[in-house]
Amino acid sequence: MLFIILFSFSGYAQKTQEINYDSDRTLKNEERYPGALILSKVENQVYFDHDGIEVWCDNAVFYKEANFFKAYGNIRMQQGDSVSMTSNYAEYNGNTEFAFASGNVSMRRPQTTLETDSLFFDRIKQQAYYRSGGTVRDTASVLTSRIGRYFMEEDKYSFISDVVVTNPEYTINSEQLDFYSESGHAYLYGPSTIVSETSTVYCERGFYDTREDRGHFVKNSRIDYENRILKGDSLYFNRENSFASATNNIKVIDTINKSRVTGHYAEVYRDKDSVFITKKALAASLQERDSLFIHSDTIMITGKPEKRIIRGFYNVRILKEDMSGKSDSIYSNQETGLTKLINLKRFGDKKPVLWSGSNQMTGDSIHLQSNPKTEQLDSLRVFEDAFLIQKDSIDGYNQVKGKVLIGLFEDNEIYEVNIDKNTETLNYMRNDKDEFIGINKAEASSIKILFEAKEIKDIYYYNQVNGKLTPEADFPPNSRKLNGFNWRGEERILDKQMLFEGEEEPELIKIKGIPLPDEPDKFFDEREKNDPLLDKNSRLNPKVLKNREGDSLKFKNEVPVDKLKPTEEKEKENSTQQNKEG
C-alpha cells in the first residue's frame, strides 16, 4: 500500500502542467502546421497562462500536445509582479519552462530595463541570457555589453565582453562586470577604467557603487587626476567628496612638478589639491641635477602646482646630492623656494641640523633658500644659537657660534658663511705648508668665513674683542669645545637607505581583496535529443541552443501569422535563412 501511495505521489509530482490559452479565433491548418492550433486576435489578444507566467500576443501557433507555442506581434510576458517582457516574436516550451524572444526585446524589472534583439529565458533557473549585444538601463546608468546574463533570485546582471557603463558623471569600460540592480553595486573584473571629466580610475579588480559614486579598487589600481597619479595596493574613491585614499605600497606622482611621494597610507583631496601620507612617508623632488628627498612620519602637500607647499611632521630627515639634515618638522614652499627646518620641541630640545661636506650647522631653526626657477640652493639662514662645526683632519673640531648664521651657495656648494652677534670661534690653525701650528680661540661681533672645496680657507673677524693662538700642548683638552658644542656626525645621512635608519618597518594592513566570481553553470543544459529546450517546431536551429560565443539572432521576414500565407517553398526559404543566422 505504501509503495502504491509513493508511486502515485511521484507520478503526480512529475506531471507537467499544461499551457492554458484563450483566443478570439482558433483555426487549424494541418498541411502548414500539423497538430497545431492557429490562434488570432479579433478584439482581444491571444492569452496563454502557464505556472505563474502569462503571455499576450496578436497571433500564435500552439502545439498543444507538445505544450509549446510560437507567438507573433505585440507580445507581452508577465511573471508575477517582478518581471515583464515585450517583443515582436517569442517561443515557449511548457515542459522545460524555457522561452526565447526576439525583435525589440524589452525586459523590465523594478529597478532596470533590459533591451536586446534576442533573449533566452530559463524559468527553472530563473535566468535570462543574451549574446548578441544588450543594453540595461537603471535609475542612474546605462550598461551595454556583447554578452549578458541576468540572475533573478540575486537581482544580478553579469556582463561580459565590451562592457560599457555610461553615467552623466563618468563612463566605465570593463572586460567583465557584475551589477546588482537593487543596490546599484558593480564589481569589475579584468582591465577596467572609470573615466570622468576630472579623473580616470584604472584597476583589474574593483567595486563601484554607481548610486553613491564611490568605489574600492585592488590589483594594479591607480587614479589619474589632472596633475597627480595615485597608485597603491588598495584604493578607495569617493567622487562626491573628491576624495581618494590608498593603502600599502603607495605612490603619489606629481606630473607637473616632477615629484613623487611614497608611503603606506595616503589621502588625496582633489578640490583642495592636497595629499596626506604616512607610514614610511618619503617625498622626492626629482630634479635634473640634484634631487631632494624628505622623509618624516607624516607628509602633507597642499596647493596648486605653481604654489605647492610641503609639510613634514615628526622626525624629519632630508637628503640632497651633498647635503642632508634632520629636524622635528619641515616646511617647503615651491613657489618661493624657501624650506624651513623647524624644532617644535615635541620630542625634547634636539635642534635642527644640516650637514654639507664636513660641515655641520645647528640652530633653533634653519632656512634654505633655493632659486624657484633653477631649483638650485642660493643661501641658508640659521636663527638663534647658530653653531657651525667642521671636523678637522686631526682629532679636533673647528667651531663657530653666534646668534645668526647666513651661508651662501654657488652650484649647490657653500662658499661663504657670515655669523653675526656674539660670535665665538675655535679653529685649528695651519701655516702655508699646511702644518698644524696651534688652536686659535677668538670672539668678535661678526665673522666671515670663506670656503674652498667645502673646507675653510679664510676667516675674517670684525670688531674682534679678543683672540689668541695657543700651541696645542698648552691648550687644555677640556677647553677645546665651545659652550653648546654637539657634534652629531654619526647621524649624518649619506644615502636614501639612511633616511629610514633606526626605524621599524610599519605594520601593513592586510588587504581584503575582491574575490573572482564563481564560474556559473553553463546556461544551456545538455539535454537529450528527445527533450529539447524548445521544440522541434521551433524557429531556432538546435545548434543555437548551445553554449558558444556571441551571435546575432535578428530574424528576417517576421510578419504576423494571420497576414502570412506563404507557399511551402517560402516557408522552407525562411527556415533556411534563420538556420544560417543561428
Short characterization:
Residues 41-175 form the Organic solvent tolerance-like N-terminal domain. The protein has 582 residues and is mainly β.
Helix content class: under 10%
Any low-confidence stretches, pLDDT <50, length ≥5? 1-14, 551-582
Number of strands: 35
How is the biggest beta sheet arranged?
A: 35 strands, antiparallel
| CATH class annotation of the domain at 316-502 | Mainly Beta
Characterize the overall form: rod-shaped
Write down the CATH topology of the domain at 316-502. lipopolysaccharide transport protein A fold
Which value, in Å, is the CA radius of gyration? 41 Å
Structural class, please?
Answer: mainly beta
Please give the count of helices: 2
Overall residue-averaged pLDDT value: 84
- What share of residues are in beta strands? over 45%
Assign the CATH superfamily of the domain at 316-502: Lipopolysaccharide (LPS) transport protein A like domain
CATH architecture of the domain at 316-502: Sandwich
Ends apart, CA distance between termini = 52 Å
Pfam family, one: OstA_2
Biased composition (Basic and acidic residues): 520-538, 546-582
Region (Disordered): 520-582
InterPro entries: OstA-like_N
Description:
The protein has 582 residues and is mainly beta. It has a domain at 316-502: Lipopolysaccharide (LPS) transport protein A like domain (lipopolysaccharide transport protein A fold), CATH 2.60.450.10. 4% of the residues lie in helices and 55% in strands. It has helices at residues 2-13, 568-581; strands spanning 20-22, 25-27, 37-40, 46-50, 53-57, 59-63, 68-79, 83-93, 98-108, 113-122, 127-130, 134-137, 142-145, 147-151, 156-166, 170-180, 185-196, 200-209, 214-224, 228-238, 243-254, 259-269, 274-285, 292-302, 309-320, 323-333, 338-342, 353-356, 359-362, 365-370, 377-391, 397-410, 413-430, 436-452, 455-470. The protein has a 35-stranded antiparallel β-sheet that branches. A hairpin with a 3-residue loop joins strand 7 and strand 8 (83-93). The longest helix is centred in the C-terminal third of the chain and has 14 residues, at 568-581. It is rod-shaped and about 130 Å long. Residues 520-582 are annotated as: Disordered. InterPro entries: OstA-like_N. Residues 520-538, 546-582 have a biased composition (Basic and acidic residues). This is OstA-like protein. Residues 41-175 form the Organic solvent tolerance-like N-terminal domain.
